[in-house]
Amino acid sequence: MNNSSPGAFGILLGALLTLLLSACGPDRSQPLTSEQAHAELAKHVQRVAYDTRPVRAQVNLPVGAPATLADTLPDIAKFPVVVEPAAGAGDVVAEIFSSIEKSGNGSDGWLTEVARDFNAANEKLADGRRAQVRVRNIASGTAYQFIASRKYVPDAYTPSSHLWIRMTAASGMAVTPISERLAGNLAGVVLKKDKADKLRTAGGQLDVKMLIDATVQERIVMGYTDPYASTTGLNFLLTVLQTFAGGETARMLAPDVESAFEGFQSKVPFVAITTLQMRDSVQSGGSLDAFVMERQTFANMPELSSGYEFVPFGERHDNPLYALGKIPAERVEVLKRFAAFATQQKYQANAAKYGFNSPMDHKTPFAAPPGEMIAQVQKLWKKAKNQSRPVAAVFLCDISGSMQGSRLRNVKQALLQGSDLIAASNSIGMVLFNDKVTEVVPIKPFDLRQKATLRTAIAQIDAAGGTAMYDGIAVALSLLVKEKATHPDVQPMLFVLTDGETNQGMSFDDMRMIIKGLNIPIYAVGYEADIKELARLSGLVEAANLNAGEGDIGYKIGSLLNAQM
């Protein structure tokens, strides 16, 4: 009997190919299940030069109040002056802090263009002197930190919305209205159209309350931005709390509202520092169905116009202009003339061209909270956002030779300051990497002993050797996987601090599908690094990436930890 028939041969060949493929491991171009990712990670870690050398707490914690986000603020020169007048001896110059969506370039440069034209127009004051303005590009929340801390106070402030003006007044700074609206704008949730259609089919009006309810019920996946830095994120947080308070603004801080917010936040996988980071995550194929954004930004993103729709919420973002403190009367006159110049028909038409002054109208049904309450809401968010699901995080620090000197000193100082911004409800560990990987702080709850241990480890860091970043990532992720197995309720996160590309060990391609399969977000902070490499790393699972330098790494790391921890 002949057993070598074509059919039998085909079956035998297929079995042989299957065996060979399975021996080679899973196809790295295909998604891995969680179980496959765990198995592949274990294999990769076995190949890493890895050691455990836990430090013991030796550093005494500093006496006094812990560092705040304002303590990490960089020199004001880190925020560019986008309009600098060529002022003469007789000119009167007023400096304005302006939010970034109107003081940048292109469609984000409306106020920049207005200010340049104003300075060129040679407007004269009543006494005959020339009126000039200086415009500094700075995010609304960061500007507020400078002003409220008195680290730098300009003559005037034009944030995205009145929320920051009320907070500024609550900080004790005198504010004088110059214009309540330079250019109209709205905050909104950008929602995938197929999700919007499904929600409409289920019945009811498609508004922010429906989206909040749908998030809690896990019918959509929502993301928003850091309310300490982003006007839209702050507006959204207030709207969520006011919704849970049944429209009673005075009850936003009530225990039952806080509890409802904790339930909502437990269903939110991603809080970005900026809207642009959240947008990039969505565009790179992230899992978010909805995220917050200003109408002006949405209007300038044609790639979102076909697959998404804009659902407005909260207070309007009308870009008010207010004088700060007791500035001289002639500077107030400069600001008034500038506001009148900006609201001319020509410039309002330009604002509409750039996405402002949308015909879409919206008025919040909620009473405007006072500035003192807005500041309390920020603190409540910091305290409550992870109560139901605490974070377990590992700091993975590059100690390769290129980090020697000022780079390492600045990173160490930034981490020491940032440790004060980590809530005690979280758990923290630390891993170092150069050409080898060393675990120096095992993951434990961030009580005072663990904080002292972390600070000791930071103080002892030295730099030498090559850069095996993905070896370090593999080890750090394995520690987080073990922590998650022991404490299933934690939310694992990895923070990578590095100054360059990996030049030893595993590569991005070796780890890419494992990271996606594990679904653990990796927040990458580059010290004057290859940001493209770090962007694709943090983009695998919704997370942020930052590029920092000597002057601002403390503030950027502080902002990241304040938002996530």
TrEMBL record:
PROSITE patterns the record matches: VWFA (PS50234)
VWFA domain sequence ranges: 392-539
Any Pfam family the entry gives: SBP_bac_11
InterPro entries referenced in this protein's UniProt entry, alphabetically: CLCR (IPR051266), VWF_A (IPR002035), vWFA_dom_sf (IPR036465)
Full protein name: VWA domain-containing protein
Native species: Candidatus Accumulibacter contiguus
Source lineage: Bacteria, Pseudomonadati, Pseudomonadota, Betaproteobacteria, Candidatus Accumulibacter
